[in-house]
Amino acid sequence: MQIKKVTFKKIHSTNSYAKEHIDTFDPKYVTIISAEEQTAGRGRFQRKWISPKDCNLYLTYVFFKPKLDETIGQIPQLLALALCDVLRPIVPEVSLKWPNDIVIQNRKLGGILTETSESRGMWGIIVGIGINVNMDASYQKMIDRPCTSLLIETGEVFNREELSEALHQRFFELLKRGFSSNLDSLKKAFIHKKGDWLKTNDFVKIVEGQFEQINQDGSLTLRLENGDFCKINSGELL
Ligand code: BTN
């Protein structure tokens, strides 16, 4: 995979930059946009992503596809798995929370925001990841959910450049291998165990049930109280 990199000291949001400049990226390349600080970092469902300077990773990968299909959601899951693979030697408890949060014992370490934008008769797939690397515990009070960083977990400061290079390399390996070949590793990386009670919200409806499985396409199946199975394609776990 051929790569082009665009780096910023400070930007509003690497995903917003990608959307605004989508027509300028060469579709033959994967463009990786990174920043040391974001002034308007965005999370899923219109949340803010707290993005202090010089301590975390804020990255956006831009791919081009001829058309949109159901495989688009698999790209962020492979990115989340790539991060898990890179971090496991450092923090063995790292795992995934469906669909693509990276957590350490339910404390959020990283999140992924995937967006799409039409460009020149193709689709730009914009996959942004925020990883809390060297952020200290004082930021936890600014974030309304349990969160953590590598520094908080290990007491060590990490080289962000090395971490991002390792992530790019692993992500491209997993993409090359394809989603179905990574499915077993992906299933093992999820924190959920069969029978766990989960509550999902796709902002249309809330569905509760016991975790049954992660499916071939990365979706989630819950077993409802009445015994029926329900397949959830998108949303988040509450
Ligand atoms: C989430 O809600 O879990 C997704 C968070 C995604 C944050 C990243 S940081 C880099 C990129 N730029 C953004 O504005 N958001 C994503």
Structure description:
This protein has about 240 residues and is of the alpha+beta class. It has five helices and twelve strands. It has helices at about 15-20, 75-85, 150-155, 160-175, 180-190; strands spanning about 5-10, 30-40, 55-65, 95, 100-105, 105-120, 120-130, 195-200, 205-215, 220-225, 230, 235. The strands form two sheets. It has a seven-stranded mixed sheet with strand order 1-2-3-7-6-5-4, with helices on both faces. α2 crosses α5. The protein is globular. It starts with a strand and ends with a strand. The protein binds biotin (BTN).
Chain-wise SSE layout:
Blueprint: E1 3-11, H1 14-20, E2 30-38, E3 57-65, H2 74-87, E4 94-97, E5 101-104, E6 107-119, E7 122-131, H3 150-154, H4 160-177, H5 179-189, E8 197-201, E9 206-214, E10 220-223, E11 229-232, E12 236-237
Parallel strand pairs: 1-2
Antiparallel strand pairs: 2-3, 3-7, 4-5, 5-6, 6-7, 8-9, 8-12, 9-10, 10-11
Helix pairs in contact: 2-4, 2-5
Bound molecules: biotin.
Biotin (BTN) binds next to helix 1, strand 3, strand 6 and strand 7.
